[in-house]
Please model this.
Amino acid sequence: MRKFQLEHYENQLNHQVIHMDQAVCYCPEFRATKMMHDYPSRRLQLARAVYKGEIELSDYIGEINFSSILSRQGERWQNFRECAEDCTDVTILCREMLLKKGYQSPEVKEFQKALEAKEGRLYEKTSWELPMDEKSDKAILLDEETAQKAKAGEGPLREYLNRKGISFVNRADAEFVGFEYFAYGLVEEGIEHLKQLVEKYAKMKVRQVWVLSAQTAYVLTKLADKAEITVPFEVIYLPEWLEPMDVKEKTYVYAGSFNLRYLLNAELLGRLIPSESEIQEVNSEEFIPILKGDKRVNALTVWQKPVGAEYKLFCGKKDMLQAIEQDAYEDIERAKAGTIVVFEPTALPKLKEKFRDKRVFHYLELL
Model:
């Protein structure tokens, strides 16, 4: 019997249904809809009641429990220094429970159709040309989102690797990492997919597997650990190895949920793109202050508003998602930066489209 299932997470579930008023002001779903059923504790109260047999499953309960974008924003841990993993874990496991009890999720159906259409992928096959050496003790795992949405970073990354004398034993063929399985409550399928992915790279007999996105780093480390999958290689998230980047003008750094709230990388990315000053601008918001100076102008904190879900969405509440986007855009506009550096590939096309008057780069383009 696997450990990562709701029966073993009842204590965490019981804790997450305790209401916390402080978080209402920055939970993205609640800020978008102003409906209390979109607040983490309320939706999980309903899921818990179904799990305990206290109320019957309904489409309403299923819909609101599948509507969260899993950003980890507006949850108990941010105020009370609790485990940042718990709310996400029980949300995923509650989604699995609701599916097993008969909820017919349109999101899950569309996800499964998409996988079938592309034979186990979400995007067309693609590869990047990166340095290769059959004697290397390193492999590269290029995730589909980065491969598709940060294509402009391929050349700078290749040049950077050549300068540093870094090569990989494998070709950089884009991989479906599989977080969507978990996000849509298909936990058994997700664990099996992750096992196969780890086995594929384990067979290369490398010491390190390098990854370019925070989501991939999370899946191969923390999520693999929850799934009791032994990963026999070191996972290297590229920003951990980079030297500070020199930006030429006021720059807003969009780090994303996987970096700031899943991996807690605020300090890492803050060192990578330093600010000129830690002095806050007058009237800055308490949790997401704007900084004085001509370098990075936003403080990187666990409260940076998400632009959206950092996995591929199917269906979803369009009005809510648009409101979440606009909420984040207003913070970025307030920073009055000329450049936006993006560490989250899923957000890159949105930010490029919204801020056409600014220079918007994926971090790989700055190497």
